[in-house]
Amino acid sequence: MRNGLAELGELLALVHRATRGAAQATGEHRSAAVWGALSTLRERPLRLGDLAAASRVAQPTMTKIVEGLEAQGWVRRDADPGDARARLVVLTDAGDAALDDWRRRLVAALEPQFGGLDAEDVAALRRTVALLRERLDPSAAEVRSEPGTASSATGVLEGSATRTT
């Protein structure tokens, strides 16, 4: 592949591997689909079917996930202002806090491998994060990738909350 696409594929595979390993190290019993749904809802409220499609799970599966998240108080269903017959699944403050806590635990689990990065390595991670944001969400890239924000690469390495998925 050309234009860095092979490297992008490798990056995605390694990030998935790191996330899986960190999740196992936390001992968390909730599925990745739960955390993925919360991450997706952090971006914007969605109808159940759209959330299922975005999460790449069947609608009945997402119904069960959302019911569990509602029971936890992490999401609620609100009327869709565009269609009174439809409902939107909305992330609550408690769900937002739970997602932040989950991400902190993932970062803590990766601390042994990544805690001692030098300034050059941190700069490389920061640039990678900025590049991905720029390509995936150009309107948000400038704000989110500024040094010192909660989602900067330094914040990730120091174990602070991130706002990335």
From TrEMBL:
It comes from the Bacteria. GO terms for molecular function: DNA-binding transcription factor activity. InterPro entries: HTH-type_Bedaq_tolerance, HTH_MarR-typ, WH-like_DNA-bd_sf, WH_DNA-bd_sf. Residues 5-134 form the HTH marR-type domain. Gene3D superfamilies: Winged helix-like DNA-binding domain superfamily/Winged helix DNA-binding domain. Signal peptide: none annotated. SUPFAM superfamilies: Winged helix' DNA-binding domain. Residues 138-165 are annotated as: Disordered. This is MarR family transcriptional regulator. It comes from Arenivirga flava.
